[in-house]
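Local shape tokens

___
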Amino acid sequence: MHLELVTIVVTEYDPAIEFFVEILGFDLIEDSPSLTNDGRPKRWVVVRPPTASTGILLAKADGDRQLPAIGNQVAGRVGFFLRVNDFETAYRRMTAAGVEFVTSPRTEVYGRVAVFLDISGNRWDLLGSPKPPAA
């Protein structure tokens, strides 16, 4: 058993794909025509970090009820956690690409961390590996 997908509600598909693929370095797994439950056209767009098994369904907001979820997936909390092998390199690359960090990098027991915003305004932790315990 594994968690296959989580959904992030976005304003538009193409800028969200560009953010996740070009800026964060995710893979575009699928971008297919689909239909809403009531038969209107939409797209089924899935992105995923390389080598990860869990992906993100990028879902364009559909109607007034879904619009408030854009950028507020988890009520303003950090709700997504991107673990990288080389924190400093990823932080520099993302900063140079225009990613908005809302905290400066700091060291916690679970590793280096800085909070950034995705294209919709959701908060993410960029996480580096924790340092091994001192010998």
